[in-house]
Structure formats: structure tokens, C-alpha cells
Amino acid sequence: MKTVVRWVGMVMLGLMLVGQAAAEDGYDLWLRYRPLDGAAQARLHAQARAVVLAAPASPSLDAAVAELRRGVAGMAGREIAVSTRLVPGALVLATPGQAPAGLVLPWADLGREGWLLRRQTLQGRDVTVIAANSDIGLLYGSFAWLRAVQTGADLARLDQRSAPKVGLRLLNHWDNLDRHVERGYAGASLWDWWKLPDLLDPRYVDYARANASLGINGAVLNNVNAKADSLTAPFLAKAAALAGVFRPYGIKVYLSARFSAPVELGGLKTADPLDPAVRAWWKAKADEIYAVIPDFGGFLVKANSEGQPGPQDYGRNHADGANMLAEALGPHGGVVMWRAFVYAADASDRAKQGYVEFQPLDGKFAPNVIVQVKNGPIDFQPREPFHPLFGAMPHTPLALEVQITKEYLGFSTHLAYLGPLFAEVLQADTGHGGKVARVVDGSLHGQRLTAMAGVANIGTDRNWSGSQFDQANWYAFGRLAWDPDLGAADVARDWAAQTFTARPAARDAIVALMMGSREAVVDYMTPLGLHHLMGTGHHYGPAPWVDNLERADWNPVYFHRAGRDGIGFDRSPAGSNGVAQYAPSVARLWSDPRTTPPELLLWFHHLPWDYAMPSGRSLWGELVARYDRGVATVDDMRRRWDALKPEIDAARHAEVAAYLAVQAHEAQWWRDACIAYFQSMSGLPLPAGVRPPALDLAAYKARQFAFAPGR
Length: 711
Ligand code: BDP
Known about the structure:
The chain is 38% helix and 10% strand. By secondary structure, it is an alpha/beta fold. The chain has 3 domains: 27-162, Chitobiase, domain 2; 168-484, Glycosidases (TIM Barrel, Alpha-Beta Barrel), CATH 3.20.20.80; 522-569 and 606-701, Alpha-d-glucuronidase, C-terminal Domain (Alpha-Beta Complex), CATH 3.90.1330. Helix 15 packs across helix 16 and helix 16 runs antiparallel to helix 20. The two termini are 50 Å apart. The structure holds beta-D-glucopyranuronic acid.
């Protein structure tokens, strides 16, 4: 009785909320499927009267149908039936084997995962065809059709097709087995290892739906700073349980593998990759994994980096290590993603180390190894030049790794849409005959094994990503991994329409706010090519003065080199000559400050404070102006967001507004602390009209953040 009363109450509450913006908390991500307005509902219903199945039954097909029904029920307010009879206004899910007579399509172009959406007449009936060569393609196509509805496409004239340009589109979760997430700002790890494998949180399904809606087809479950425990039988059973949930959504699981596991788990005396017993151990381990996870994706490995074990501990190189694992996984179809994020050999210029260690190994890796390279040569800074390895290893598959979680961009409290950052690296011309996107999609050097990885920003927070707008970074990663040539603004437009509102004026206002946001962070943190000025360890807040860390190349002063004479890291031929790692056409441009874009100036050059900038200002004046511009942009973002209040549901509007207030405050802090510090180096007065920092430098230096998240 009590339950009935509760249900009636809930239904009534639900009815009351219809018509006004229902409270939203962000859990639904971009898959909200809220009711369309009356006319649009009628149009949608006319195009989605039933789901017609012309494809073999499978769990993935079931997932596609469930999603279509969920979407139509939400947006058109109607339950739709599933049938095998072709009815007018049907959504026809078709694969070549079972396609209805008369359906002629360019199936071959779609590949295994691609899809096609087309409104057409079939056997005398007007229908919408969702076609693919596989059930996963149909699932992706169904999500694409729902996106078309959500973004206001003309359903009566629909004609779209798409196939992924990159084979492996992976999230890298830096999740520890105790649920702490390294560089996580969205709560604890989603993976409840303790309760797995018996208890499956329903959230795992929603995670899989969200990924499938973008085409993400793999997840590395555990941190690159891996514990060997993740390879033990109990944890493999847990990973297998997750794999079982994800499988219908086309998502494979991968694990980060600790290189020394044969010693730690196997009791061997060595993890030397050329030792037969070590090789046998990994082979047996791979067999064991595939026995419980038949479609296991493979290993991600961080070796000889930041204290992690690796082949160099035994006088071997990265190829020796990677190839040993590749040999173990190869018979099962698994891959090794071997990270190029290393900086051990020589601290004279940390930016050079990845290239120095890896480029000479070009062509030495087994065919199922991908070398995974961060977007830039240092470490996920607000701006870096693209990594010089892109284009420089023609005989080796290279994956691009970007960071979705904003370790160095203000955590989840700062609004920074990363689409422009991702697109900037993908569109950068390597000078080796194509842009980075052509390395990533394999076309530049004819690689068939291709991948793009994003370090996830997902956790147990109700809104998944720590903030409403950080969802856009997960989204942008997925869309760009599928098609690296998409424009960041186009992706933002889809996201904003799906996540907030499809009304064009409001949607475009959101997009405009997003598109300037990353540059704002660059300006108020690290303008003009400065980098790594963040607080020690946690990377929160400004600390350009830090000079006392154990390793020289952990200190901000190492990176900015500011003194009375000027500022910047000289990577020109007169300095570290890091620029020589780029193709000659690129190196030539970036060797000369006058042909280096201002955005990268102090990355490559150490210049006097009075150096004349293209703007007509001195370098000192320009630096200050950029810091001020960053603060002003955030203030402007706040105004733009306030103006959107009538368009956005109250709870999410208020939450974003509160976050923007934090960001405005912290942007000012960054600006003030950096100007105070750099002024102490330059010894120059502030340009006329510039407001002095609120506090003395000592006050900024004194700030400590003992429990900052993500460490
Ligand atoms: C840095 C992070 C550190 C990661 C490392 C990596 O500060 O937590 O372990 O990268 O990518 O950005 O391995």
C-alpha cells in the first residue's frame, strides 16, 4: 500500500514537472531525451512509428532497440513497438544479410563499425533506414539517429553516413584498485572493485551507453601506475564482469600491466624481457586472461617512467619490453600500447627525452604494438606544441594520448572546453607530409593499427565528470577519436544541443562561451608558451617560484628560466636544440623567434623582457596583457552564462554559475601571483593602467594545499 501511494505521488510529481524545466543534475549526460515541443514531437512520431528489425538478433541489437525506444519515448512521449513487418514511418535496422528486398546501399564503405542513416522509400513505404555491417554499427547508427533528433536535424530528409577513421578509441582510466583516481576530480572510481564481480552497479551500463553513443570502443580499467594485483585471478574475474557489461556496447576492456609482475606475482628473480622464464610467465598470464575475457583488448604499459619498472632495468630497450608482451598477446589478437611518456635519460631538456628514447627504435616494434604518445612533449599543459614523434616514426603505429581530466587546467572547477586543444594538435602539420591526424588515422604512413586514447575524467560524481561542462570534454574526445577532422565548434554545437538546449540562439551562445574557454586558461595560467608553472605534486594553483624539488626538471623555474635578462626556455639551435627534433620545415620556423607563433614563443626561446612583440608591446607588456586578457575572458564567460539563465534548467544553471565564480576568483589569483613573481624577476614597473597584484608575492608563496584531490 505504502509503495502504491509513493508511486502515485511520484507520478503526480512527474506530471507537475512536465511543461516546466524538470530538475536536472547532469546524470543523463547528452542522452537526456527530454520532451520536444509539440510540433517537433509530432514530426518525430511520424518518422519513428515502429522499430523494424532486419538484422540478426544479438545483445548489441537489443541495446540499439532499447536506446531508440528510450529516446523516442522521452522526446516524442510515445512508446514504439518492435516489429518485423515494414510499416510506414518505421525505423529499419538493417544489415546486408537480412536487408529488406530493394534496399541498395554502399555497404562496403561502412566497414565494420560505420553506419548510414537515410530517409527513403522502401517497398512503397516511407521509412528511415539505419544500416550497418554489424550489430555494433547498428548501435552506433541508432545513437547517431538520436543525435540527429536531439540536434534538430530535418528527419524527413535525413541522409548521413560515417565510419570511424581510427580503429581503437580508448578511455584510459587512471583508477587505483582502492578507488582513488589519480588526477581524478569527479569523485571515486566508478569501478567498485571490492563488490565486483558479484555486484554490478547499474551505472556501468550507463557508462557503456555514453561511450557507445560516441563510438568509444575500449576502456583501460586501471591506472598506468599499475599494481601487479590487477593481473591476479580475483581481479581478472572482476575485470571479466565489467567486460560482460560492456560487451554489448562494443567496448573491450584493457589493463595497465606492471612490468615487474613476473617478479611480484610469479616469484621470478627477474622481469628481464629476454629471459625465457619471464616470457613464459607472460604467455601463461595472457592465456589465463583470455580464458576469462575472450575479447580482452590488451595491455597499456608505463615503463621506465617516473619510477615505474621497465626493460631498461635489465639493460634492454622499450622495443624489447613491448615485443615480449606483444608475443604473449598476439596469438589472442591483443595489442600492447606502450607509452612514450619518459624523461629519465638526461635532464638537460625534458622535452627531448621521449624522442631521444623512442625515435631510434622506429621499425623495431612487433606489429601488434602501438607506441602511445602524449599530445605534447612535456605533460598535458594548457598549451604545448605537438609531440615531435608524430611523423618521425613512419614504421611504427603511433597512438595519440590526450588528457580529458584537467590536471593542469584548473581541475573540474574551471570551465575549459578541450575540443580546441585536441583539434589544435590533430590539425598541426608535422612537416613530414601530413598533419598529426594523418599519423593518428594511419594514413600518412599506411599503418593499419590506429588508436587515440583519452585519460578519463569520469568518477562517481552524480554528473560523472566533476562539472557539467567537463562532460563536453569526454564527448569531444569520443567524437574526435571517431573522426579527427571534426571541428571543435561543430562538436560543441552538438554537445550543447544535446546537453542543454537545441534552441539555436542559446545553443550558439553556449558554444561561443566554450570556444574561448581553453584560451582563457592558457592566458591566465601559462601564456606565450610558458609551461609547468603549477603547484608541486597536485598541480593546483600557481607556483612559478618553486626551485627546490629533487629533480631539476620538476621545478617551474627549470621551465620558465626567468631572470633579470629575460624569460623562456631556449630550445633553439643556440639552446637545447629541442627544435631540431621536428621536421626541417617546422624546425626552421620555430628556430627563429620572429617566425615562432606568439603562442609558443617562450616554449622555444629565451628572450629579453623588452623584446618587441608583433602587437607593438614589449614582451613584459605582452605577458601582463595576456594574464589580464585571461581574467577578462572569464568575467565575460560569467556574464554570458548569466544571460542564459532563462534558457537553462535552474539546478544546472546555478551549479555552473557557482563554478564560474570559483574560476573567476582563481583566474585572478593565477594572474596576480604570476605577475607578482615575474615582476620580481624582470624588475620592471607594471605597464601604465595595469592593476597591481592584490597581495605581496610572499602571500602567494605561502599558500599550501595539503589535501588537493587527484594526487
Ligand atoms: C602526469 C601525472 C601523473 C601521471 C603521469 C603519466 O602528473 O600523475 O602518472 O603524467 O602520464 O601528468 O604517467
